[in-house]
Design brief:
Elements lengths: L13 H6 L4 H7 L15 H17 L18 H18 L2 H19 L4 H10 L4 E3 L8 E4 H8 L13 E3 L2 E4 L1 H21 L8 H18 L17 H11 L6 H13 L4 H7 L8 H12 L13 H6 L16 H27 L1
Antiparallel strand pairs: 1-2, 2-4, 3-4
Helix pairs in contact: 3-4, 3-5, 3-9, 4-8, 4-9, 5-8, 6-8, 12-13
């Protein structure tokens, strides 16, 4: 299938660019302005700088980018389109100034998640335009009422490789003549990965040796916010929980909790601390304990949030190391990897990376066989 190219009638409007500032057309639109880092501290840029700070702060705290609205709550009020357009590259500069990989990843993910939520509300024609902006080899599917698009398999694999649900495996997709058949929501989910990657690449293009003092101070504020809400260190854990990478002891605890079996106090603490540290939300962990006979939602939620560091002192508790779990008889079914590590989170990190590498090798083999 040949790639389509954007024609004159598929040019994005200024409103589109404000809503989806990662599009190539946005850079072309803003290029004549020749925005420099020194311009950000001029009086005329104060509102744009404030909006950029708002974007990044919302990304750090809420993992989303709240849209600009007017007093009636209508998104992208016409007179503020220019502010919204300019706030994106300014936000990129602010995030780059933090020199913090976790903030960079979180901001890119937040922008991508918000964009995907908006794209789900757009027409199929518009979604196709955005996909073509990324150079995808994609077109509409024949009107059989089941699928909306057909996407060339390599474009599918490139963006589905980080999605661990079984439905994203090529073997579970409808494949014909090198094309994968997808509905609109599935295409949008794949676009989220593409958007996130494009934004992450933008940080590498920011070549600034020295930031103005005012920008450095704002960057320091963002780092403080990040340390309060998402911790100070990069974990490198997968963004999606990989249950197949759980260490044996945690797997036993997780399965027992899922089947409403009794867990000792240390078992509950270890399981909760492990899950919140690998990225599971306190809400999801609380839900796991919901069907226990002694479940008290208010108390359980408080305990989980306390361990997650969102209540009380703000300290995020880590899972006990293996020697402590052995002392409390929680360590069970040790395998060869267990004998080489000292902490359940270390086990998870190694096993998740092995899983990712195996999946990557599988993609390579599939690509070769279909080429």
């Amino acid at each position: 299938m040949m790639a389509k190219t954007l024609s004159v009638d598929t040019v994005f409007t200024k409103s589109d660019l404000a809503k989806y500032p990662f599009l190539k057309e946005t850079a072309r639109y803003l290029s004549p302005l020749n925005l420099q880092i020194e311009d950000l501290i001029s009086p005329g840029m104060s509102q744009i700088l404030d909006r950029a700070m708002e974007r990044v702060t919302s990304a750090i705290v809420n993992l989303t980018v709240r849209p600009l609205t007017n007093v009636q709550g209508i998104k992208y009020y016409v007179k503020d389109l220019q502010k919204e357009l300019l706030s994106f590259p300014v936000a990129i500069m602010l995030v780059s100034a933090t020199d913090n990989s976790l903030i960079k990843k979180r901001y890119a993910l937040a922008e991508a998640k918000y964009a995907s939520s908006e794209l789900n509300l757009e027409s199929k024609d518009f979604v196709l335009k955005v996909a073509l902006d990324f150079g995808w080899r994609i077109t509409f599917a024949s009107s059989d009422g089941v699928f909306d698009f057909v996407l060339y398999f390599s474009d599918f694999l490139q963006n589905a490789s980080n999605l661990h649900d079984a439905k994203w495996k090529l073997i579970n997709s409808k494949l014909s003549e090198g094309n994968v058949y997808l509905n609109k929501r599935e295409v949008v989910r794949l676009l989220q990965e593409e958007i996130k990657r494009r934004i992450e690449k933008r940080f590498a293009t920011v070549a600034i040796n020295k930031y103005p003092l005012e920008i450095s101070e704002l960057a320091d504020k963002l780092k403080v916010i990040a340390s309060e809400h998402i911790g100070q260190t990069e974990t490198d854990f997968p963004k999606v929980v990989v249950q197949g990478a759980f260490p044996p002891c945690i797997n036993i605890l997780y399965n027992a909790a899922s089947k409403n079996h009794h867990l000792p106090h240390m078992g509950r603490f270890a399981l909760t601390a492990f899950l919140v540290n690998i990225g599971m939300s306190p809400e999801s962990v609380t839900e796991l304990f919901k069907s226990f006979s002694d479940f008290n939602e208010r108390l359980t939620r408080y305990q989980v949030e306390h361990i997650a560091g969102t209540r009380g002192s703000g300290t995020k508790y880590t899972c006990p190391q293996c020697s402590i779990l052995q002392t409390h008889n929680v360590c069970k079914n040790r395998d060869d990897l267990c004998k080489r590590i000292y902490h359940p989170l270390k086990y998870y990190k190694i096993k998740a990376e092995m899983s990712r590498q195996n999946q990557s090798d599988e993609i390579d083999q599939t690509t070769k066989s279909l080429s």
